[in-house]
Amino acid sequence: xxxxxxxxxxxxxxxxxxxxxxxxxxxxPLREVQPYIDRAFKDNAKIKYVxxxxxxxxxxxxxxxxxxxxxxxxxxxxxxxxxxxIICATDGQIFDIGHCKVKVIHTPGHTMESTTYLIxxxxxxxxxxxxxxTLFIGDVGRPDLAQHxxxxxxxxxxxxxxxxxxxxxxxxxxxxxxxxxxxxxGSACGKMMSKETTDTLGHQKQTNYALNPNLSExxxxxxVLTGLTAxxxxxxxxxxxxxxxxxxxxxxxQKAKKPMNPKAFEMAATETRALVLDTRNAADFAKGFIxxxxxxxxxxxxxxxxxxxxIDTLQEILLVCDPGTEEEALxxxxxxxxxxxxxxxxxxxxxxxxxxxxIDTVNRISAQEMEHMDLSQIPIFDVRKRSExxxxxxxAATNVPLNEINTHLAEFPKDKKFIVxxxxxxxxxIAASILKQRGWDNFMDVSDGFAGLKNTGLPKTDYVCPTTxx
Length: 470
What we know:
The chain is an alpha/beta fold. The chain folds into three domains: about 1-235, Ribonuclease Z/Hydroxyacylglutathione hydrolase-like (Metallo-beta-lactamase, Chain A, 4-Layer Sandwich); about 245-355, Rhodanese-like domain (Oxidized Rhodanese, domain 1, 3-Layer(aba) Sandwich); about 365-470, Oxidized Rhodanese, domain 1 (3-Layer(aba) Sandwich), CATH 3.40.250.10. It has 16 helices and 22 strands. It has helices spanning about 35-40, 65-70, 155-170, 200-205, 215-225, 235-245, 250-255, 260-270, 280-285, 300-310, 325-335, 350-355, 365-370, 385-390, 425-435, 450-455, and strands at about 1-10, 15-20, 25, 45-50, 75, 85-90, 95, 100-105, 115-120, 125-130, 180, 200, 260, 275-280, 295, 315-320, 340-345, 365, 380, 395-400, 420, 445. Strands 1-2-3-4-5-6 form a six-stranded mixed beta sheet, with helices on one face. A six-stranded mixed beta sheet has the order 7-8-9-10-11-12. α14 (about 385-390) links the parallel β19 and β20.
């Protein structure tokens, strides 16, 4: 038996490949399915099943395309009712993959159809559990997402389901089982996931707050719900795509792969309501960009931040990329359901510049330069998460988390200079591009962010209780 974790850091996602005696199964695949097909081909194996742990909110699963290309059967756990053909497994049902077995364990809580899959090897030994968003390393799946799709599924109700699923279905299992979760640190599907992407169940019983056997049901509900931030706005759209189905990725890519010369690009930007999305790194964007474009760089958590800041998955998009990275950008957009890219700038920003079209810039300074400035009359805005700000920040800084910037624009002055920073310059450039688009031009971005500011003599706070910042 082979079991492999296929991890995609951009969205902190883990899919799993299971193979035995020429048969394979894929668990929670991403939208682009060719890597799974290639992996099975390498083993001369046939993909027999595509297992889903639940209807995902943070990405569009590749189960439909994978099933269409391989004739594999799609399997969900109990209560799942999508708009396409599946095997709706019963609690305890067993599926054969070669000489090993996959046992269905219904674990509602994150969602009602949430299911854990117990992997049993050729010798009948229970090897591990693929837990989806039921159990993470150091955390459990947030129970507040389903209510954004079905109002009756309140976070309190789902949290109580999760309590019983963990105590009655997961915790009685053997300590030596390996836990294979769907996400790691950085995912918005939990609040305090570890950077580790696997662990033993026994160690999780000792260290995961949600598996504390002394927690009452009410205490568990309070612990799980405390500290949750608002989920990204695109989550409900992704859930519905996973339930109702979606367009074939090959067709989406074919429509989006439209190179445009600068004139055609400029006309498309003018005549449509398309968002001009520049995916170059922050430093290059700052030196020159197309006016009114937004910078979300590929060299970071691109998909997550597109989903956070754009929200509407039906938004038409025009891409500005480093030449050769257009397909990567399109795939990353498709992973979160943004299927309406209408083209990209052929030759990238350099082609636009050479054609003589108007450009804009962002004024950037280093932390060291900032240290030698008179800051007494210059407001400072920290766009990191509230938890990062609470941990340590410049005494003079005001916290406006990036994902809340659109509702706090009135806090940014137009009659005086101000400074924007994040942890290392990635998020602050997203903020800078949004401010530029909305008419601000009187600010500076700190290129090395708080990582650089920590090494200056500028006054900083010690830890502040996060509850004072809510």
